[in-house]
What we know:
Blueprint: H1 2-16, E1 20-24, E2 41-45, E3 56-60, E4 67-75, E5 80-87, H2 91-100, E6 107-113
Amino acid sequence: MQYNIEFWNAVDELVNGSEIVIDRPKGTSHPRYPDFIYRVDYGYLKDTSSTDGAGIDVWVGSGEKKADAIMCIVDLIKKDSEIKILLGCTDKEKQIVYETHNETPFMKGVLIQR
């Protein structure tokens, strides 16, 4: 599985070469959906781009800020898909992120651990 190692090395390089911006801290509500409260810090990698034209999304947990998983999601409302990098997430935080991306019929995701 040589390519798996190369993939994670590339993710590490991307994360290490980017500033992490937390624009939705744990405990805050979503700007358009006030009933949705972030249970893990959420943000993006500055000066990167994802399929939606914004920075690559990151969930930042309470551990060492190292990429330990990704969420691959499909959003049926926006009709797009993207990945979100998990940084330093505990098993409980990974479960929260996974549930967050699967709790509605409009978004589904799979968690791929390092």
